[in-house]
Amino acid sequence: MPGKSDRQIKLIAQDNGLILLYHFIDHEIPDALLNTLHNVPPITLQRHIEVLCRFFKFVSLREFSRAKSKRGLAAITFDDGYKNVIKNALPILESFGYPATLFLNPITFSKRCNWRDKIRYLIHHQLEQEFSSGFTFHNESGRFYRYSKHPQNNSALLDQALDNFLDNFLKGPRNNLCDDLYGNSPYIQIPDLLTHHPLISYGNHSQNHYVLSSLTNPQQAQEIERAHQCLRDIPDLTLCECFSAPFGSDQDINSATYELVQALDYQSLLMSRQRIQPGRSATNKIQVLERFMPRSDDIIGELTHAYHM
Predict the structure, then answer these.
(1) 28-79: per-residue pLDDT in tens?
(2) Which helix (H) or strand (E) holds 115?
(3) Inter-residue contact 267 to 242 (CB < 8 Å)
(4) What are the backbone angles phi and psi of residue 52, rounded to the nearest 5°?
(5) Where are the beta strands (DSSP E) in 26-139?
């Protein structure tokens, strides 16, 4: 006889769809990244899929996006382009035969760090106050990690300030930043891309993962368009027709984001608001899709809680 939790998730699936969002997939993460990186161990990812496939039909994000009704459908996405997704998550996906979309920031193709890694580096080396003394932040309440991505702080200017500070602090090349944090560079490089894998597609997550709403309109256009073109210049890459907004909350995008994404003929804009996708999407110029980021083994409990929020 089905338990209460099974009945709850069955009811959710009857009227809703689900897009799962993951980032880092590894057995553990370095101490330097604790509390600043969303990691799900491979065994937990496998358990999530094992539980949910009893209630949802897993499809590609393309099929999910194009479906008139999302009821009972699920899709899997990974943001930021970590190599351990290919190493640790892909075998799990292959065992189920389920597709996934990896959203990339092409800045990392050149072995450069994501600007969030620079923030993590400052935190790990207790340099937040020293850096902040030379950069004027807005809304400095709360944790440094959080307010560094406040939309009133222009991400492009902040990134440049980080580079200037680190150049002065390190007195030499910054190539060892990711090695210091992760042990080695964690990001997918172009040779790692799976160009002919039947289960894998790739999508635009912007060039540098900046907070789009923090940028001027020309800066935001450059962020989206550069990544768009970079991905299209890679031969034989299976591309997704959805755009994944960095950070993905209400405050991280603005009207210019919608206009720019629509102008590039993306069919959907993916958000990350810890929501379950309604069975039928509202009719807009561009479809907005919700994603849910699991954090624990108790996927049913997390989803039930989100559904009743």
Answers:
(1) 999 999 889 999 999 999 999 999 999 999 999 999 999 999 999 999 999 9
(2) helix 115-124
(3) yes
(4) -75, -30
(5) 57-58, 73-79, 100-104
Same domain, 162 and 243: no
Spell out a b/e string for 203-241, using b for 16 or more CB atoms within 10 Å of the CB, else e. Answer: bbbbbbbbbbbbbeeebbbbbbbbbbebbeeeeebbebb
pLDDT of residue 284: 62
- Are residues 273 and 290 in contact, defined by beta-carbon separation less than 8 angstroms? yes
Q: Are 158 and 135 in contact (CB under 8 A)?
A: yes
Q: 58 and 32: one domain?
A: yes
Residue whose structure tokens are 């101490």: 31
209 and 269 fall within a common domain: yes
* Cα dist from 194 to 87, 94, 189, whole Å: 12, 13, 11
**Gyration radius of the chain over CA positions:** 19
Expressed as residue numbers, the domain containing 149 is 115-182
The angle that helices 155-170 and 115-124 make with each other, rounded to 10 degrees, is 50
Both tokens of 204, joined, read 């635009």
For residue 34, give the CATH number of its domain.
3.20.20.370
